[in-house]
């Protein structure tokens, strides 16, 4: 048997096996890069029978079969470069098909030159783009956009293999000028060794690409193959951990800032309050009737100072690190302390707040933790209203109770919650916000669960989102924990 036939059959079978493994590793859903690599393997697979037939039957080596063979080989090299390029970039399929069309026209031109100009000219014309494509792939492997990909060992090996394949194309180019062209059709023993080396490089390239896809997780692709699924999970867990650490760091920073701000404000506020009382006492002692208006103004100032002092107190409590115990708390009082903080934001954004207090339930819990839940829900409602762009800006807070439970409902006038998010929105790192971390609602649920209650979300008939909290009411002192 002609050794070239054996080489092509072996190459074809191994290419078929490699393509099958790659396709199955993605469970039939390869990403963009894997698709282009599969195209390369399939194009090589179809080219091998044509090369084998040309060695079996010399009469088969006519213009059309040779043009098709050259097209498939160059198309395979082009598909490889598209595969490497699309690892970190999106490639429009139109560009790929345009490249294949250009290669097809070029291969027709090669055959025209073979018969119209010189029979050995195709060796020069074919190997020039083959070398360019190989060295182009080498360049892409040497300088990828992704830092992790740049440090990947298998990516470096693909680059080395492509560089060597480019050298093989240069050797074939040189053979044209030495008047001893290297051809896969009826080659000599030396040429068989050369093509055996070339085929070995190509097969190693297939293996190395699959190793790359096992050892590297694409940040752009959602289709992870099962061979690197553990690596995908580790990468996801690492990203979640980093997000949690950033959130914790930001919370600690806000806590430190709030404590510092509260400390800096408390002394001036106390001093202003004392000075106000001193002035008021002096006016009352000197001539109360003459300074009646001034005393009334000072009383208003005192009331505003008390509100500021309460706000500072709430900030210190909210961001304090103490281990607060559960106790009997009035839910109206908890809500009002939060509103002291939230209402300036509502006024700035021109959001109307409607309070419906049907009762003042008493529950067993931690006021600071429940305030954190209120703040999370109010912030979500404010964001929803802001992003909706609707003219009607309204948040409704209602508190009621029945015999066993207290009910808190916070409803906004936004566009509501998408159906795909509704069932999972209390999961960790689940968020619809572009810059959100997905921690607020998860933490709110943890807090409410700790209070033996329940929190749920729904879309109200009016179109906005509604969050409802159910907490057990305190019935007697034995419930205290």
Pick out its properties:
481 residues, alpha+beta, Rhopdopsin 7-helix transmembrane proteins, Heat Shock Protein 90, 3 domains, 5-stranded mixed β-sheet, two-stranded antiparallel ribbon, 7 strands, disordered C terminus
Task: Characterise the protein shown here.
This protein is of the alpha+beta class and 481 residues long. The chain folds into three domains: 3-224, Rhopdopsin 7-helix transmembrane proteins, CATH 1.20.1070; 228-322; 324-481, Histidine kinase-like ATPase, C-terminal domain (Heat Shock Protein 90), CATH 3.30.565. 65% of the residues lie in helices and 9% in strands. It has 14 helices and seven strands. The protein has helices spanning 3-25, 32-56, 63-85, 93-116, 121-142, 147-150, 153-177, 189-215, 229-286, 292-318, 331-348, 367-388, 419-422, 440-450; strands at residues 327-330, 352-357, 362-365, 394-401, 405-412, 454-459, 465-472. Strands 2-4-5-7-6 form a five-stranded mixed beta sheet. Helix 7 runs antiparallel to helix 8. The termini are far apart.
Q: Structural class, please? A: alpha+beta
Question: DSSP helix count?
Answer: 14
Helix-strand pattern, N to C? HHHHHHHHHHEHEEHEEHHEE
Largest beta sheet: strand ordering: 2-4-5-7-6
Mean pLDDT across the residues is 82
pLDDT < 50 stretches: 477-481
C-alpha Rg (nearest Å): 37 Å
CATH fold group of the largest domain:
Rhopdopsin 7-helix transmembrane proteins
Number of strands: 7
Return the CATH architecture of the largest domain. Up-down Bundle
Name the quaternary structure.
single chain
Q: Roughly what fraction of the amino acids lie in strands?
A: 5-15%
Query: Class of the largest domain in CATH?
Result: Mainly Alpha
Report the sheet with the most strands, covering strand number, pairing sense and barrel closure. 5 strands, mixed
First and last CA, distance:
90 Å
Shape by Cα distribution: elongated
Q: Helix proportion of residues, in percent?
A: 55-70%
- Please, how many domains? 3
